[in-house]
Amino acid sequence: MNGMSGSSPAAPAPSPSSFFQHRHRHGGMMHMTFFWGKTTEVLFDGWPGTSLKMYWVCLAVIFVISAFSECLSRCGFMKSGPASLGGGLLQTAVYTVRAALSYLVMLAVMSFNGGVFVAAMAGFGLGFMIFGSRAFRATSSNSHTEVQSHC
């Protein structure tokens, strides 16, 4: 009598193994420990695939995203200034973009691919070295005050 009331019977809940069967059809089981290799999926289904060239593109993208996220964290976009609606909206937009980029890097690292992890950490490290550390800060010969922003 379920058909008469206009509702269909509830679909059975997928079994825990159905996820892994789906993953197996699409190139193997999902890794739950770190592994090394070019055949992986990062952020999107089928990307970067099995191509070594696309794997290197993936690593470069993760590196750039993590370095840019660090740039947004360290540059003067987030510094306080005179109170204004426009300034507050700009700070909010920059903060939101930085948070989104950081979460994308986190999700990429959750692929458990060792190369992706190394690319993310190298991007964050280089971003900090350029935008946050003392390595590239210029000092004035007269007052010995540091330049705070590298942007």
Write structural notes for this entry:
It is found in: Membrane. Its main location: membrane. This is Copper transporter 3. 50% of the residues lie in helices and 3% in strands. By secondary structure, the chain is mostly helical. The chain has a domain at 34-131. The protein has a two-stranded antiparallel ribbon. Helix 2 (52-74) runs antiparallel to helix 3 (85-109) and helix 2 runs parallel beside helix 4 (114-131). The chain is globular. The termini are far apart.
Structural descriptors:
single chain; 151 residues; mainly alpha; two-stranded antiparallel sheet; 4 helices; 50% helix; ion transport; transmembrane helix; transport; Cop_transporter
Summarize this structure briefly:
By secondary structure, the protein is mostly helical. The chain has four helices and two strands; from the N terminus they run H-E-E-H-H-H. It has a domain at 34-131.
Helix/strand class: mainly alpha
Beta-strand segment tally: 2
Globally, the shape reads globular
Number of helices: 4
Rg from alpha-carbon coordinates: 23 Å
* Residue windows where pLDDT falls under 50 for at least 5 positions: 16-26, 143-147
Helix content percent band: 40-55%
Strand content: under 5%
Q: What is the residue-mean pLDDT, rounded to a whole number?
A: 79
GO molecular function: copper ion transmembrane transporter activity
Subcellular location: Membrane
InterPro entries: Cop_transporter
Family: Belongs to the copper transporter (Ctr) (TC 1.A.56) family. SLC31A subfamily.
